[in-house]
Amino acid sequence: MTRNWDKIKNVTTRFRDLTTIGVANVVSSSISGIFWFYIAALLGTERYGEVSYFIAVAGIASAISFLGAGNTIIVYTAKGEKIQSPIFFVSSISSVIASIILFFIFYNFSVSLYVVGYIIFGLATSDILGRKLYKSYSKYLITQKIFTVVFAVSFYYLMGYQGVVFGIALSFFPYFIRLYKGFKESKFEFSPIKSHFGFMMNSYVLDLSRTFSGYTDKLIVAPIFGFAILGNYQLGVQFLSLLSILPAIVYQYILPHDASGNPNIKLKKITIFISIGLAILGILLAPIVLPILFPKFKEAIEVIQIISLAIIPSTINLVYISKFLGIEKSKVVLVGSGIYLSVQILSIFTLGQFFGINGIATSIVLASSSEAIFLISVNRMFIEKVN
Known about the structure:
Order of helices and strands: HHHHHHHHHHHHHHHH
Helix content: over 70%
Shape: globular
Structural class: mainly alpha
Oligomer: single chain
Strand content: under 5%
Largest sheet: none
């Protein structure tokens, strides 16, 4: 009887934690989605494309500064190791250096500020997820999105479209207090970094690869096809982000559990099946919703329908990425991300020239599918045979 009660209690706790993350992600992603759609309608295709371009620049610089800290903190904190202090210190210094370099390249203070703020928020949330403090994570996530809306919209009316990036950058800074607590709770010594240096560097290259996968398309599209095309394309990517809410929720929940030896296989399978329904939903809703809400973004209808298909392989990728990171096989994930990036860049240049914006959208589907095929193949050929 006691064992049955313990099982029920364990399932209830896991469901509650997943629900907590789920509600937080749904709420925060909804706020973010509405915000970006509002900004798109407010700015129009060209200015929206320009803001997306600067966010991409800041995002890549942030990943370079992060030094693979996110997954490293989540995985080893979940294993009970105190590694926060040295990683917080190194990543913070790196972000300041990157922000200074960016300022002298673009002379844009908002972009530089974004990098420092993003690192602060990224370190804080990684620490919370590693500790499995899902309620605290939920509060951080939702309040940050609220700050984004308030600051970005306010500074837009004060500074113009450049105020959007400035406002987003400011929304990250209230969470510096979490870094301060992390410094106090763990010893400041570099031995934890040295002992896990291999994993951290693999995670670093992985972060760079996935960030470049998320932002390189914008850096390519803007100078070659123009900000107006980028604006339509980015609206499609934003719809994909909405469809990705559930897979992202599951990933954030299962990564610490995979690291602890709890695979959650049924949950992963259900999530993949749901992603198929989400793809169909995106294809059906695009021609209905877009003409009503975004009459200036007519070219984005087919873009959204194409990009919606990417939610299926993207969900599969997150499931296997969590598994490989949980067993500290980050090199596999790294190679997968490299495949994604290579296929995406090649597809943008080739398909973009022949099919325009629809060819650019197809690059995301091809890249995600290529990565999924690789991860599934490696899992079947090596991991399952060993187990």
